[in-house]
């Protein structure tokens, strides 16, 4: 009799342990299913936001190419906003000819850029010369410049390209450049304008301040006149190469952004109306 009771107790204990184990397993499966569901919703929202940002890029290209001068979007950094698929898309366009071209800018413009970014005169002169030596063929350094011996003396295992900058990011490697300065100047530099100095019709404040003789007062006057004109002064005057930043914000707060540098080719039958020169997703440089 005692043996039967013991067997029943053991059996009951096994059943209870089995039920507990099943409950734990079901709870784990439920938590896993919930997590996967949340991840799927997040990924779906991110995908929606991403394609809304891409739609913003396409909308910007259309705005730049519209034949109506009054409806044409202006590439001077102002913000355009439109709604797309339950998302608000904010777009800014900057004409590359309003930036400082690493491959074409004069020594004065380069040093002016670095001074405007907060660098002292001596360092600005050296950085300007180092940029010129990076893009200039030959092994002889300019006064205050930097060729391979100067890079080696600084403990670097590389030297200048001795040819044009291939990317904007290559400027990070110029002797004397640091992360803080790069962050400041990155939005104001380009390799696609071919201009000795920025075009004042499109240039942003930092690029304007780089222009010799213009000064802070002249830059402020240009920006004020541009704002007062509401874009009329530059309508139709956009160049062909632009950097477009598009950020899409869904109604639940999900965000996605992209930045692309594009070159317009005009609207011709059988041809792509633009070429992508640079593409970055997210807000990091």
UniProtKB/TrEMBL annotation:
<dbReference type="InterPro" id="IPR005628">
    <property type="entry name" value="GspK"/>
</dbReference>
<protein>
    <submittedName>
        <fullName>General secretion pathway protein GspK</fullName>
    </submittedName>
</protein>
<keyword id="KW-0997">Cell inner membrane</keyword>
<dbReference type="InterPro" id="IPR038072">
    <property type="entry name" value="GspK_central_sf"/>
</dbReference>
<keyword id="KW-0813">Transport</keyword>
<keyword id="KW-1133">Transmembrane helix</keyword>
<keyword id="KW-0653">Protein transport</keyword>
<dbReference type="Pfam" id="PF21687">
    <property type="entry name" value="T2SSK_1st"/>
</dbReference>
<dbReference type="InterPro" id="IPR049031">
    <property type="entry name" value="T2SSK_SAM-like_1st"/>
</dbReference>
<dbReference type="GO" id="GO:0009306">
    <property type="term" value="P:protein secretion"/>
</dbReference>
<feature type="domain" description="T2SS protein K first SAM-like">
    <location>
        <begin position="95"/>
        <end position="192"/>
    </location>
</feature>
<comment type="similarity">
    <text>Belongs to the GSP K family.</text>
</comment>
<dbReference type="GO" id="GO:0005886">
    <property type="term" value="C:plasma membrane"/>
</dbReference>
<keyword id="KW-0812">Transmembrane</keyword>
<keyword id="KW-1003">Cell membrane</keyword>
<keyword id="KW-0472">Membrane</keyword>
């Amino acid at each position: 009799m005692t043996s039967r009771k013991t067997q029943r107790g053991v059996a009951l204990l096994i059943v209870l342990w089995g039920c507990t184990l099943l409950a734990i397993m079901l709870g784990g499966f439920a938590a896993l299913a919930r997590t996967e569901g949340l991840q799927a919703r997040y990924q779906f929202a991110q995908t929606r936001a991403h394609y809304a940002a891409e739609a913003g890029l396409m909308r910007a290209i259309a705005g730049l190419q519209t034949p109506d001068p009054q409806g044409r979007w202006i590439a001077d950094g102002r913000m355009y906003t439109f709604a797309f698929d339950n998302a608000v898309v904010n777009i800014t366009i900057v004409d590359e000819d309003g930036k400082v071209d690493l491959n074409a800018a004069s020594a004065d413009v380069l040093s002016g850029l670095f001074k405007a970014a907060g660098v002292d005169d001596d360092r600005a002169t050296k950085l300007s010369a180092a940029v010129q030596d990076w893009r200039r063929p030959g092994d002889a350094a300019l006064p205050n410049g930097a060729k391979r011996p100067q890079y080696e003396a600084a403990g670097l295992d590389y030297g200048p390209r001795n040819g044009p900058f291939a990317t904007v990011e290559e400027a990070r490697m110029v002797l004397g450049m640091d992360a803080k300065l790069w962050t400041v100047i990155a939005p104001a530099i380009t390799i696609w304008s071919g201009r000795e100095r920025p075009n004042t019709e499109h240039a942003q404040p930092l690029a304007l301040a780089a222009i010799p003789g213009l000064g802070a007062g002249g830059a402020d006057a240009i920006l004020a006149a541009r704002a007062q004109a509401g874009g009329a002064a530059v309508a139709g005057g956009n160049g062909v190469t632009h950097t477009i930043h598009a950020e899409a914000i869904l109604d639940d707060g999900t965000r996605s952004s992209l930045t692309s540098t594009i070159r317009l080719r005009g609207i011709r039958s059988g041809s792509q109306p633009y070429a992508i020169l640079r593409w970055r997703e997210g807000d990091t440089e």
